[in-house]
Amino acid sequence: MGKGNKLTMIKICGIKDTNTAQIAIDNGVNALGFVFAESSRRIFPEDAKKIIQTLPKNILRVGVFVNAPISLVKEIAEYCNLTALQFHGIENVNYCRQYKRKVIKAIKVSK
């Protein structure tokens, strides 16, 4: 893990360049998120891999996906050397159990 209190983790999502990644690391983040889903913050695996290769080993490298096919998630996770996966779609428990990496599942809460 990164610096600071081990009970609190900080993750910055939408990393698209090494400069932003380094600024986040210099400010004590534990994890960096790379958005592979359709978004203005989307990054292509080739670009994410270049950034990830520059990161210290103690920084979690999180891939963010929305309703992506399992095979695609596994392919990107291996290619980019992701340490965790974050899902923001309608992925169920069985879907999330298909992976051998840490999983973060975002859950929508309605009023």
Automatic annotation (TrEMBL):
Residues 10-110 form the N-(5'phosphoribosyl) anthranilate isomerase (PRAI) domain. Pathway: Amino-acid biosynthesis; L-tryptophan biosynthesis; L-tryptophan from chorismate: step 3/5. InterPro entries: Aldolase_TIM, PRAI_dom, RibuloseP-bd_barrel, TrpF_fam. Keywords: Amino-acid biosynthesis, Aromatic amino acid biosynthesis, Isomerase, Tryptophan biosynthesis. Its EC number is 5.3.1.24. GO terms for molecular function: phosphoribosylanthranilate isomerase activity. One of its GO terms (biological process) is L-tryptophan biosynthetic process. This is phosphoribosylanthranilate isomerase. It comes from marine sediment metagenome.
